[in-house]
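Subject: Protein record for review, amino acid sequence with backbone structure tokens
Why sent: The fold of this protein is of interest and is recorded here as tokens.
Enclosed: The protein record, placed directly beneath this head.
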Amino acid sequence: MKSLKRYQYERYAVLCRLAYPRIFKQTAFGFDPNGQRIIRNVERKIMARVLWNKKRQEVILVIKGSHSVKDWLLNLAFWHRSCGRFGLNYSIHAGFYYLLTQESPPSHRDDRLGLSVFERVIDIIGPLLDSGMRLVITGHSSGGAIGCVIGDYIEHHYPKAIKRIVTFGQPAAGDWRFKKRYTLPHKTYRVCCDLDIVTFMPLVPFAYWHVGKLLWLYNGRIYENTPTLMRLGRSLLSWIIRPFSYHLMSKYIRNKDFFDEH
């Protein structure tokens, strides 16, 4: 698997963060003047953005994570729902299934009525992929989880159209069959930061599995594919000993010019 370059990681991280504001000017980040479509959830809140640059032949799907009380409660719906509706032979988290299948009200004059979030995404992205453009998917939290499912569907219907999938703070999305049948493990990068508890969820042993390559940001370094138990153990140990670390002499001499200035 090719590594994710630092500038690519930083770019996707910025796009994930900027997906949350109500207003986002895509031209400030190199996308076409008409290169943005918004996807709303059933409550008419912005859930995702499709951004593109025809010159670069690139489309980016940016998906928000949980951003309301209802969204957080959906994370507790940890039973399985089959993805047969999407033509995929595995099951995913019931809360994430709802996020994909809820109605998406129109936001653009070309939007058709009565589509789900999943159908809206495909309806917008499909013609762009038909024109030869390639797709990057990035999402935060539950947005990363459903981004993997969308990416897997697209890979089945538009082979090699996916450039990469980069998620941030993503919980596990599906069952063991999802892990075994997911078609993009070599193009999926799952970024975790320190002890982000959401990345260990759902807390149901062996019921949910992660896919792709783990990039763990910990103590100023990036670790690849660190086992879950080792990651949890290191993080907890760091928390336990952190108060004692302030007793080290290195903490007392870090501001060596302090006495000169006073």
About this structure: The chain has one domain: 6-229. Residues 224 and 237 are 19 Å apart (CA to CA). Confidence is low (pLDDT under 50) at residues 251-262.
